[in-house]
Amino acid sequence: MPETDNPHLQSYRLHRRIDYRISKVARILKSRTQAGLDIHGISRMQWAALTGIELEKKHSPSDLAKHIGVSRPAISRLLKQMEADNLIERRLLGEDGRTRQLNLTELGFEKMEKCWPHVHATEQYFLGKISPTEVEVLCTAIDRLLEGENVDFDKI
Q1: Span 31-76, pLDDT tens digits
Q2: At 87, which helix (H) or strand (E)?
Q3: What are the respective helix, strand and coil percentages of the chain, to the nearest 5?
Q4: How far is C-alpha 104 from the geometric centre of its chain's CA atoms?
Q5: Hey, is 69 helix, strand or coil?
Q6: Residue 97 and residue 91: Cα distance in Å, rounded?
Q7: Residue 111 clears pLDDT 70, i.e. is over it
Q8: Nearest 10 degrees: CA dihedral of 38, 43, 47, 48?
């Protein structure tokens, strides 16, 4: 195999790459979070929807889709399943009945409350590894990396 003359390729090390590191941390966080949610029969997407509706007051499907960062068809499928599982209810509003308001059912609220300790503990476990100043720097850096990356999830 020929050697490359490209100095960038010569110095390439996977484990030093930011995309590799961020992906690895994200996979571990997702996996640990999902493990706790599994106990209660909730997916990470359902968790995001439950908290989005109840805690962050995203009561319309389009607001919730934007909040979570998924396409409208994806939120539609998620909400349909959550409604079938009796986690949410949709109410028609307005004279034309085309506006929908999302609300948690009693079961949805109970699941959200039961899952919270694990979700919180998982986040605190990782944040506890770094100082409060490092947490602030990390969050600022992530926000900076996300600047200008507004994605239309309906187009991907």
Answers
A1: 999 999 999 999 999 999 999 999 999 999 999 999 999 999 999 9
A2: none
A3: 65, 10, 30
A4: 18
A5: coil
A6: 9
A7: yes
A8: 150
| Cβ atoms within 10 Å, residue 115 | 22
CB 30 within 8 A of CB 44: yes
pLDDT in tens, 1-18: 667 777 766 677 788 889
The string of pLDDT tens digits covering residues 80-96 is 999 999 999 998 876 66
User: Which residues, at least 6 apart from 130, have a Cβ–Cβ distance to it below 8 Å?
Assistant: 138
Class of domain 23-148: mainly alpha
> How much is the pLDDT for 90?
92
Contact 63, 104 (CB under 8 A): no
Q: Would you kindly state where each structural domain of the chain is located, as residue ranges?
A: 23-148
